[in-house]
Amino acid sequence: MMNPERRFDGPAFFWLFLFVWYFSGLPQILYLLSGTGRMEDLLATLPLSLFWLAVALFLPPARQRLALGVIGLLLWAASLVSLGYFGIHGDPMTQSVVFAMFESNPEESREFFSQYLTWQLVGGLSLYTLSAFLLWKRLRPAALPRARVIPVCALLLAISACYPLLTRDHTVEKAQNRLRAAMPWPILTGYCQYNRQLARLRERLAGKTPLLAQLEDVSGDAPRALVLVVGESTTSLRMSLYGYPRPTSPRLEALRADGLTVFADVIAPRPYTIEVLQQALTFAHQKAPRRFLDEPSLIDLMRQAGYKTFWITNQQTMNRDSLLTFFARQADETRYLNRQFQQDANQFDEIVLDPFARALQDPARKKFIVVHLLGAHIKYQYRYPKSFDRFEGKEHAPPGLDAAKLAQYNAYDNAMLYNDFIVSRLIETFTRQAANGFLLYFSDHGEEVFDTAPHQTLGRNEDAPTPGMYRVPFLLWTSPSWRTAHPRDFQGMTGRKYSTEHLIHTWSDLAGLRYDRYQPELSVTNPAFREFTRWIGNPDGKLEDFDGMCWQCGAHKDSGKPEEAPARRKTGR
Description:
CATH topology of the largest domain: Alkaline Phosphatase, subunit A
Low-confidence stretches: 1-5, 554-573
Structural class: alpha/beta
CATH class of the largest domain: Alpha Beta
Number of strands: 18
CATH architecture of the largest domain: 3-Layer(aba) Sandwich
Shape: elongated
Helix content: 40-55%
Radius of gyration: 27 Å
């Protein structure tokens, strides 16, 4: 039996602590060396790692090594996800990424990493894993006198537990932000926040819909169909409609002579679908991102205004509860068309055309139809049929792309060409049925596909923004009958700087809906429009002025911290 008065074994304690700290400390060192981390987060790993040391010391010495092996596996798995993301994007994993993980099914997650996996990344993660194993092999029991086990473990736990609370603002959110420095808390706290938001949204769906005060429809009583088409991962920088040299949007260009208005300078506030739609389809915005939890959505607004609402989606939502399907489930009729579990499946957006035509034929006098496309989602080569495989060579592609990058660059342009076909077919279907109303198309966010020098970036990364991640198409088509009843000249408005975070006000303006929260100065189609600061970035971290960014040097002129904006602030959002 162990002598209860055994002397303190300093080296044994050191190696125990080094092992549990390794999974949090080494990633933070890498973040710091890359210029994307903070010394505060590195220092935070020290007290936070004491939690696991206390757990080990509380156990009998003979069981410490085995217990630390189990703990190490947990910490290794969590840190491997974070380091894998860092190896791919060069930045730490954010809460938005954690949310996206829980919105994705396992197959989608696997395909994400297979898309970006390289031998260098595999080698780095393997070396990281081998080092952890060698550390574990070096561990030996570290015993405390029995009388000191409970006091010492209690002290270590108290230090670890109290550290997250040592903030000026004693809130759960601030405490969780501090916990994110150490594994596995970033994933666990992200999961808790994800489920908390999902629970609140379920309560919204089960409870009474919040109403807007003083709502009136000034657009008349004529039957109409108002259509909102939401694209996916489509940047305006790769559309010939916006000046791109390859002919990726010929059909939409032809429609310019038939009532199509092209807004030239529109961005998304964030490069992630969920976060964008939580703002675009509600009264939330970059300075008040959580308003979507309690306030009416665009679907609520249209239903209150007497519209029958439809949601037609080719996204892989599979009729499951998620932050994204919250909006779909608010509609009167919802069609989930994508039953695929994998991204590398040929589930083309033309599947939305027939359900869209049937929704237009619905006998309801006032219809609001949302069509959510799969667009140019990653795995671009699976987003279009072979007949749209038009772009193959190097013409107009950035110089220096290897064969693999060039193939992805061309595949993205082919996806753009097919997206042009789908959006134009939706408009043609609208015209063919002689429906009265309008169709507004925008993309949730853009995509960087080797456009920005040094032409190495693929996908989206909020911590390393590029113009392609944020610049999105914003197109308005109005039917002849709607133009006659509601004559408006938009041509002097197409160059306005706009962000889709305030889309609900533009939609309300176009639909003729007036209510207490409507702000005409936030509608890009209203004469009262006033330009506002177009913030991009994470509202829980740092916001940057899109128009103040120096995209070549990575600097910026201005930045802002998130704060709750007054209900009717006109500028500086």
